[in-house]
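Problem 3 from the worked examples.
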Amino acid sequence: MATTKDKKEKEPTNIVHQNAIFCETVRKEQRHQKLYTNYGLNPYKKVHAVTGKPHSLHDSGDGKEDELFQLTYKKAQQVPQDKFEYPVTEAQEIGWFSASLVDQQRNDPRLHHPKNHSEITKFMDAYWRQKEQEKLQE
């Protein structure tokens, strides 16, 4: 049977030792930090213009436009097929060349399959419309 003397008692925390560990951690973090001061606009996010105050001098349209911003914005709004010659990722390969290989001919029954209605499909269409109307009335 173990007595309380055999068990190790927890030593009190050494504040100086804890502070030394904290200082070393901060030094390691600061060694790998890099401060970015050159901020820019994300070209892949839509920008919504907000109008300025009517009589404000700094909101007037006078001045030089930023050409780099204009080019970046135009390029971001393009579809990937216009930006790149070939697909960049594997996911883009699917549907990259989306032009149809065969011209659509509506009079050819092999290529054109219009939606056909039978008695049961007409009944179900009416049923679903009725259910939707009931939901709206509730």
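Problem 4, a separate protein:
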Amino acid sequence: MSRYPSNSRIQIDTGETPEPRYDYADDETPDDDGDGLKLRPSNSNVIENLEPFMGVKVRRRASRLRDYIGDYLDVPSRPHLMKILDKQGDRKVLFADKVMKFTGSGKLKRRLLLITDFAIYIMDPETDSLKRRIALAAVETLCLSELSDNFFAVIIPTEYDLLMASTRKTEIVTVLVNATKSASDFELEVSLSNRFEYNAGAGQMKEVQFEEVEGGVRTKIVQK
């Protein structure tokens, strides 16, 4: 079975969403790359009022007219981040913001997401240290649901995948699609489905399931 059964090539549009609501478990336990927060299943787990994509999701006129900012972290003012980019030969920051990243064990961790014209960077917000760098050329597909939520997966066939949540999901997808096309003339596929699989690392395949419920979207992550 395909990891992303229903894919639709879509036209990317702009927009902004309100802050997400996450339910966390009371106990916080350390994970393999730092301390994290475990996600508790909830009917209100990650809610948006605005739908990200034209043609598949209805969008409000106000969100369509809103301009993107790109760098929400003011990266040039953070020497530790600039040093990491310089070391990798990257200078042009297309997007930078705080996100929530899911670990292989299903915990949520706060991370910084930076996208340049060559790569994706995942940083530790406490230390500004580099956790992972992924070349844009290695990304094959972006997976999203057809509902109103903040989740997205970055599928990297040669490595393990990334599952993240952000209120600026639409902008992130737009930047990745445009940057990939500019760098390699490759059209990054955006796959829309209310259930998709991703490689969580260490040989773990997981499926993300989305269901529309009263008041929002219920999201489940299950082991395959």
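Solution to problem 4. The chain has a mean pLDDT of 78. Residues 169-184 form the longest helix (16 residues).
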